[in-house]
Amino acid sequence: MTLTPTRAHEHTVIQDAVRELMRRIPELTDRLIACLRDGARPDELRLVSSPAFRASAQTGLRAVLEAVASVGRERPDMPFARQVGRRYAERRIPLETALRTYRLAGTLLWESMVDVITARHPEDLPLLVTGARRTMSMVDQLSLSVTEAYRQAQRDLRDGELERALGVLDDLLDGRPVPPERLARAAARLDLPRSGRYAVLAVRAPVPAPPPDRAGDVRLIWRPRSDVVLGVAHLGAADLAALTARLSPLIHGPAGIGLPVEGVDALATARRLADLALRCAVPPVRRAGRARLGQREAAGRHRPASTHGGDDRPPEPHAAGGPGDGGGIVRLDECLPAALVAAQPDLARHLRDVVVGPLLDLDPAERDTLLETVAVWLDCGGSTARAARRLFCHRNTVLGRIRRVERLTGRRLGHPREAAEIVLALESVRLARAAEAAPNRGPGASARG
């Protein structure tokens, strides 16, 4: 870089002053530390009194002086400033401490340079007007570099802390032991109280991107798995009904939510209950097509069900997202019979074979018709008229099918204990059929067609 005569002379004067100040680095370091001690907080006082800080201050002063003397070259003080910013962030030293150090160092170097030039080149003092602007600009640039590096390091630290905290959350969900101190740090980082009320959602359907981090007053943290997405819900004072209502418009497919648990360290139990609820989120037993009715039933189908006495109340639609339609969020507390069956697959298979085995051995069309009829009749609270309206057939047709189910199973639907066995057996059929339809079908899941 070619300098004009005036700039060349100015540069010569500055370089001479820099060489003198380089020799005074130990003295300048002492003065800087003395300035920093004046009015320092206790933590700052410990910092500036350490040998490591003295060594760092000497390196920093030398780098700034080299930058002042350089012309057209890369500034050696900028990498050091970025290093200082990162180191202060990693050691949790306040950013203001670093910026105060640079401000005082800039003032100290400028005053020392004025003293040197006054003593050695008094005729060149007017040159310092330009030098003052340049020096102050350099200090501002250094402060900006320190700040940017400090904040980037903070972001990196937060990201690392967040990943570690989420790893602890994964361990809790998967039932792996977590040391108390790690649990405490992770809970604090994730802002999850250790003693709060929690529930877990297991979602097989796509979750919105980005997934919601709140549902009303409920805090949510989502964790992906190979086959599901788990949502950890800090319920606080909210109930499952409010949470389900908030999330139902966002989740369009199978999902399960378990029972509330107390404490973040009970998330493994909450996750197991959510998985159980998800297994209950399967379609009801239905015929392949309602048009496939036996010829002996066709005569009653065309007559309006409302003309046949009994119960004339309008039919009740299936609750959206309930355990009966295989879509939306299924709450475990609303499908406990199905959950009992799903939790004990071996007993469920035995119950299915013993209670409804003869029914399952029928022709598929008749079998599905009877299964659907008894399921709808139970959904309607035992009302034959309402079941008939739901099934688009005559109430006597429903009665005939119910009696046939009772003959085949050897159990009376009017008898509470025997009806309970049929209810559980039907849930076993429903869950087994869903398992058969799933891509990864487990062994022993057959519901006989």
UniProtKB/TrEMBL annotation:
<feature type="domain" description="PucR C-terminal helix-turn-helix">
    <location>
        <begin position="370"/>
        <end position="427"/>
    </location>
</feature>
<feature type="region of interest" description="Disordered">
    <location>
        <begin position="291"/>
        <end position="326"/>
    </location>
</feature>
<dbReference type="InterPro" id="IPR025751">
    <property type="entry name" value="RsbRD_N_dom"/>
</dbReference>
<dbReference type="Pfam" id="PF14361">
    <property type="entry name" value="RsbRD_N"/>
</dbReference>
<dbReference type="InterPro" id="IPR025736">
    <property type="entry name" value="PucR_C-HTH_dom"/>
</dbReference>
<dbReference type="Pfam" id="PF13556">
    <property type="entry name" value="HTH_30"/>
</dbReference>
<protein>
    <submittedName>
        <fullName>PucR family transcriptional regulator</fullName>
    </submittedName>
</protein>
<dbReference type="InterPro" id="IPR051448">
    <property type="entry name" value="CdaR-like_regulators"/>
</dbReference>
<feature type="domain" description="RsbT co-antagonist protein RsbRD N-terminal">
    <location>
        <begin position="26"/>
        <end position="161"/>
    </location>
</feature>
<dbReference type="InterPro" id="IPR042070">
    <property type="entry name" value="PucR_C-HTH_sf"/>
</dbReference>
